[in-house]
Amino acid sequence: MKNLMLIRLLIVVALGLLFVQCTSDPIPGPPGADGMDGIDGIDGVDGADGIASCVSCHSDATRDIVDASFELSAHGSGFVFGFTGPREDCTFCHSNLGHQDFVAFGEVDPGSLSSNSPITCATCHDSHDTFDFENDGIDYALRSIEPVALELDPNTVIDFGGTSNNCTLCHQPRDSYVIPAEDGTGKYVVATTRFGPHHGPQSTMLEGIMGANIAGSVGYPGVASATHRTGASCVSCHMGESTDVSEGLHSWNVTEASCVACHTNGIPSELAGFTEDMAILKQLLTEVVGEEYEEDSEGNPVFDMEGNPVGTGVPVVGLIIDFPDGSDTDRSNEGIFTTAEAQAAWNYMTLLEDQSRGTHNPAYSRALLTNSIEALQN
Ligand code: HEC
Ligand code: HEC
Ligand code: HEC
Ligand code: HEC
Ligand code: HEC
Ligand code: HEC
Q1: pLDDT one-digit tens code per residue, 310-324
Q2: Mean pLDDT of the 85-89 span
Q3: How far is CA 2 from CA 9, 12, 13, 259, 313, in A?
Q4: Which atom from ligand 4 is nearest to the alpha carbon of 164?
Q5: What is the CA(217)–ligand 6 centre distance, in A?
Q6: How many CB atoms lie under 10 A from the CB of residue 196?
Q7: Which residue in 19, 121, 282, 326 has the fewest CB atoms around it within 10 Å?
């Protein structure tokens, strides 16, 4: 009897299992009613006021400081080049609307330049890409902080990884002359009285590129390896915090405060020996003797079948010169020079135009300077 009970019980259990299997058929039932809302959690503790609060940048107090320092800056007192006439290419960097066109379209629309002005706030700033500063980073409402493909060689891109990318847009050599390099002829034709990179090779110098890397006793440091690039930036040195509107901020004058963290034993005012060595290099460049080139009907240099420039036999004394009438300095003579002479001249002008006395990239400047001097002395 007990066994029978047990068998019945087992049958019930077995049927139950069958039932379970039937109901496990994958037809979903209707969704259940929503549960009740939970109880509100406890408010979190307020965080410290971050830079990301709107008023930290958008207050009259902040604005007054920015305006006062901007007024003292070279940007704030700049002027428009190529405002009228054919020099749209100058307005890329030397005007407000020209720069806006350049950033947006990569070229300047001459029609948009009639109401142009020098550099102003809107040249660099427009609107925020994001208000989620915590996750997306602070963009300072800058028109562009993207990496920059260079004018002189669009295949070379500089990325300082922050707001300093804004500087590279303008502080790079203008597309002008080919950087001298050995091409098999051993010669380079300087067909301008303004040889060298146009004003502003600061970004390329900080990166450690676009000198003429002439061989010599000092090795060239790795690209982008300078401590001033990896541990500092255009913005950290030139736009540092300050209580004096003529330093840092929007004056773009360097602050000593931005140097002392690293230069604890005093801040060097230039790369050691820079002024002396530049004078030596300049002297050598004024003594270089080249040759006048044959000109075609349009005044351009003539080359033979092998690509060698054709000279007239008339010597040209000096590659870099000061005009004898004192009207200008550090200009170039037109003529055929050796590649090494042209490289040394390119490097001299690069170091001069950089305007930091070797500070932007001490090791790269040292190599360019020493190796150029050696090349002319040999
Ligand atoms: C780190 C500094 C900074 C912070 C923080 C900041 N902004 Fe800005 N913002 C700027 C700058 C710089 C500009 C462009 C120059 C200007 O107009 O002041 C700008 C421009 C703007 C503009 C466009 C102005 C115009 O005239 O078109 C708006 C809108 C704006 N910000 C709103 C905000 C709001 C809202 C917040 C907070 C969520 C905020 N910003 C936080 C720096 C900042
Ligand atoms: C729109 C182009 C443009 C941008 C962007 C720009 N600059 Fe300039 N900068 C110039 C021009 C052009 C001058 C020369 C003054 C003039 O003629 O307007 C100049 C001058 C300067 C000077 C003073 C040079 C002197 O001889 O006294 C400093 C320093 C400077 N810029 C640093 C910076 C830094 C740092 C940045 C990035 C935050 C920057 N600039 C972004 C175009 C620009
Ligand atoms: C790619 C950007 C760029 C272009 C294009 C450009 N410049 Fe400049 N220029 C600069 C910068 C940046 C400076 C300031 C940097 C410095 O002083 O080292 C400057 C400085 C100058 C200066 C010296 C100004 C001073 O205050 O001492 C002159 C002159 C000048 N440029 C003329 C021109 C002319 C003319 C053109 C067109 C043929 C032109 N530039 C095109 C970026 C540019
Ligand atoms: C040559 C480019 C340039 C010009 C011109 C310029 N700014 Fe800026 N501005 C910057 C850059 C770059 C930063 C971000 C600096 C940083 O990363 O710390 C900045 C930061 C700011 C900030 C936030 C940080 C601060 O200094 O309080 C404000 C506000 C601002 N700019 C307003 C202005 C106003 C207003 C003008 C015109 C009077 C102006 N800017 C002109 C490049 C420029
Ligand atoms: C390690 C700090 C440092 C960094 C990084 C730096 N600079 Fe400079 N820069 C200097 C010093 C120092 C000078 C020389 C200033 C002087 O002679 O009064 C200078 C000079 C200049 C000048 C010449 C005008 C002047 O004020 O005499 C320009 C333009 C300039 N820097 C732009 C830039 C740009 C653009 C960048 C980024 C590509 C940059 N700098 C990065 C420290 C720095
Ligand atoms: C992140 C650290 C750091 C900061 C910030 C910094 N420097 Fe330097 N600086 C160095 C280091 C490291 C060297 C030597 C190595 C080299 O050549 O890069 C150096 C080298 C130099 C040199 C070359 C000295 C020589 O004769 O070889 C000069 C000039 C210089 N710094 C000036 C400055 C000035 C001016 C500032 C501030 C505007 C500054 N530095 C900010 C780290 C820094």
Answers
A1: 999 999 999 999 999
A2: 66
A3: 10, 15, 16, 96, 130
A4: 12
A5: 22
A6: 25
A7: 326
Tell me the per-residue pLDDT of 57-74, one tens digit each, with 9 for 90 and over: 999 999 999 999 999 999
- Identify the residue whose tokens are 């020098």: 118
Q: CA 228, 232, 233, 234: dihedral to nearest 10 degrees?
A: -80
Which residues, 6+ apart, have CB-to-CB distance to 278 below 8 Å? 348, 351, 352, 369
CA distances from 31 to 20, 27, 28, 37, 297 (A): 20, 12, 8, 17, 89
Residue-level pLDDT at 117 = 86
- 219-231: pLDDT as tens digits: 999 999 999 999 9
Cα within 13 Å of Cα(265), Cβ side: 0
Determine the residue of 63, 128, 136 to mutate for testing ligand 1's pocket, defined as the one with the most ligand atoms within 8 A of the Cβ atom. Answer: 128
Q: Which protein residue's CA is at the shortest distance from atom 34 of ligand 3?
A: 90
Q: Which residue has the tokens 């200009």?
A: 331
Report pLDDT for 168. 98
Backbone angles phi, psi at 103, to 5 degrees: -70, -40
The model's pLDDT over 315-355, given as tens digits with 9 standing for 90+, comes to: 999 999 999 999 999 999 999 999 999 999 999 999 999 99
Calpha distance 239→163 (Å, rounded): 11
Q: Find the angle CA(116)-CA(66)-CA(171) to the nearest 5 degrees.
A: 55
Q: How many residues does the chain have?
A: 378
How many degrees, rounded to 5, is the angle at CA 213 between CA 319 and CA 183?
75
Residue where the block lists tokens 């915090």: 241
d(CA 364, CA 368): 6
